[in-house]
Amino acid sequence: MGRAPVIIPGICMKAKEFLFIFCLMYFMPYSFAKNIIDLQDSLRITEPISFCVSTARQEINILSITKADKRYNALVSNSETELKSNWYSFERPEPFYLRYYLKQSITPVAMAALGLGILGMTDIKLQLQENLNWNKDLKVPMYDDQLRHAPYAIGLILPLFGKYPKHKLLHLIPLVTGSYLLADGVVHQLKAYTAMARPNGAQEYDAFPSQHSSMAFVAATILHHEFGSYSPWISVGGYTLATWVAYSRLAQNHHWTSDVLTGAAVGMLSTHLVYLAYDFLSDIFTRKNLALYPYLIEGGGGVYLSFSF
């Protein structure tokens, strides 16, 4: 007799979705690589930090370079300097970043309030569903499963046109995965707590809130934070795709209006919260002059931590 499959409670994310995000993050270095500093730019080299790695072949000194309030590393080897971008250090966040995230949260909070309001008004909820579920027979493909991840694909394509993300790869990975995991965890806890029936009559009491809508708006909000400064149309494109995913869940009669509104709000707020936490840590690291430098030597490696008083 074969063993019955073991279901581990608390794992909220589907395996295929996790693998999809992991693969995107794995291949991002090839499109997000932006390692060489223009030698014609003005650089101000400060005093070398007290750290040196010696090998049998050469000695490498790590220097601290400041350019436009950003920190870089210079690897000095045999009197030849090779400048590479510092892909691991924190950078100082924008001023008044807390105010920025509070303003960004106004829209999702309003969406959540509207969704909860509709949830408590049965007549309006039923009327909205009757008017919007035109594709309940699923005759028209709406590709909601695929398009919820489309903003990530846009983020992979933009660097090919010289549009790079705001954050470095090493920092972008926890931002993306943290936003995804937080939103997914909140959605699944709410589904389990509310246990609401779906409008299509399926024997699944997990309608509220919509997980598809939440994940689509996580992706769109990440695209907004990373690339929105280049053009507002990038943000518009990401949120348009996310809105289509939410609308398709209504049109196909998988969710109520309250489900998709609240799901979208959870996705946006979760992403804003993760980015706020990141900027808070960045602020601490840069203001306290903390520096973290990983290094490799023959047969091993380590991490160098410095603090300036």
Gap from first CA to last CA? 66 Å
Given the helix and strand composition, which structural class is it?
A: alpha+beta
Spell out the helices and strands N to C: HEEEEEHHHHHHHHHEE
Mean pLDDT over the residues? 77
* Largest beta-sheet details: 5 strands, antiparallel
The number of distinct structural domains comes to 2
Gyration radius, in Å: 24 Å
Fraction of residues in H or I helices: 40-55%
Q: What is the count of β-strands?
A: 7
Our count of helices gives: 10
What does this structure look like?
The protein is α+β, with helices and mostly antiparallel strands and 309 residues long. The protein folds into two domains: 15-35 and 91-286, no CATH class; 38-86. The protein is built from ten helices and seven strands. Helix 1 packs parallel to helix 6, helix 3 (106-119) packs antiparallel against helix 10 and helix 7 (169-194) runs antiparallel to helix 8. The longest helix has 31 residues, at 257-287. The protein starts with 14 loop residues before the first helix and ends with a strand.
